[in-house]
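Data availability (excerpt). The following record was deposited with the supplementary files.
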Amino acid sequence: MVDLGCGEMPYADMMRRLNIDYLGADIGEETALKIDAQGRVPLPDGSAGAVLSVQVLEHVRDLDTYCAEIRRLLSKDGVLLLSTHGTWLYHPHPEDHRRWTRTGLIADLADRGLTVEEVHAIAGPLATTTLIRLTGFAFVLRKLPVIGAALASGLAALMNIRARLEDAITPADVRNDNACVFLVRARKSAV
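Predicted structure:
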């Protein structure tokens, strides 16, 4: 598994516990696989049974190059496991370029040679607005001395319960098409 845009590799230990041969690739110097200026990972074509892309796609300036590298790395039967934002706040790391609806995400991946097999929506529009408010409140609360962190944690628990309830009352088609985060399983399209 190649984690494309791995950052600090938060999934490395979990993948290794599952006996998955995990390699992190990123633009930073501290990764095992450094992505070069052309967006390429120093691995042979078809060498990955899986490519993992977690909350990276919205930060990619050139989707064509990024998706081409995914296709190049994937073996014939390889799978892409990807998550990205539908709706969320601007958060450059180092850049932030786009958000998707379910339809737009599927189309953008298909246009770049990836066939989406499955999409799961995480947090519909009502729940998303609650989570965005939570982000702002928690930021302010954590600045309070002594009790700030505890207040922020308590509020997080309550707001997450509220978000789950809001998702439960949101019609499935609204939630599924307008999610905060989409989880995708895709493969290389047939040539």
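Summary of structural features: The longest helix spans residues 148-169.
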